[in-house]
Amino acid sequence: MYVDAHCHLEDKGFNKNRDEVVNRARDICVITSGATLGGIKRALSLKKKYNIYLTLGYHPSKVKSDDKIVNNVYNLIKDNYKNILAIGEIGMDIKRDNPERQEEIFKKFLYLAKELDKPIVVHARGYEEKIFNLVDIPTMFHCYSGSLDLAKKITKEGYYISISTLLLFSEHHKMIVDKIDIDYILTETDSPYLSPFKGEKNEPKNVKLVVKEISKIKEMELDEVKRIIYNNSVNFFREKLTPIFTK
Ligand SMILES: [Zn+2]
């Protein structure tokens, strides 16, 4: 069994062919992340239709929203805590404005995760070090693209590095996979983003390519890598995962 630990199956871009995308992912445990007010509502309704898992959070790109929206998201997550594996994605992004406000919102959801006793999935583009210094609960660094040095500190702390489909065309990511302990690696696609194929939307099935590439880099059997990453996912998300299907 493969695990796509972070994607956006609730993205409107899948409205026209979501059933096909699900059919192509039949041996994959899919964890979808609703990270806007609309995205969270869509993710919650998908959970009724498919055997999928949820993380819910607030994306740092939404830094311009006022407190009312942030609080709506906060309350929606709180009300649905039994339906989610983790809070996320939450975090900070160097390409977005107003880092002070981003940090304030991030901390609000970090405290919520502590209150609900949930792990967190962080988006930390350009702020990997800062986020690492702010967190003190189990954390998955979604689509990690920071330095090797920090990656080693993250795994030493017992946190997880999630490797996305970027691995397929990035020497930096290959180097990181080569040098860090496989016991702290998770895999994801961030679908519909980060497609390994030009002109195509990314989708959960492509997580297989990530696992295959890791087995190549680590010079380990594919089945062994699959087993380890599945176990890492179960450890982090604290739940036995099963592949996606239409209910
Ligand atoms: Zn994402």
The CATH topology turns out to be: TIM Barrel
Helix run count: 9
Give, in spatial order, the strands making up the sheet with the most strands. 1-2-3-4-5-6-7-8
Mind telling me the CATH superfamily name?
A: Metal-dependent hydrolases
State Rg: 17 Å
Structural class: alpha/beta
Per CATH, the class reads: Alpha Beta
Helix content: 40-55%
Largest sheet: 8 strands, parallel
**N-to-C SSE string, H for helix and E for strand:** EHEHEHEHEHEHEHEHH
Report the β-strand fraction as a percent range: 5-15%
Distance between the termini: 19 Å
Mean pLDDT: 97
Number of domains as seen in the coordinates = 1
Secondary-structure topology with pairs:
Elements: E1 2-7, H1 18-23, E2 28-34, H2 37-49, E3 53-56, H3 67-79, E4 86-91, H4 99-116, E5 120-123, H5 128-134, E6 139-141, H6 148-156, E7 160-163, H7 171-179, E8 185-187, H8 207-218, H9 222-237
Parallel strand pairs: 1-2, 2-3, 3-4, 4-5, 5-6, 6-7, 7-8
Helix pairs in contact: 8-9
Bound molecules: zinc ion (ZN).
Zinc ion binds at residues 6, 8, 33, 89, 190.
In short:
This protein is an alpha/beta fold and 247 residues long.
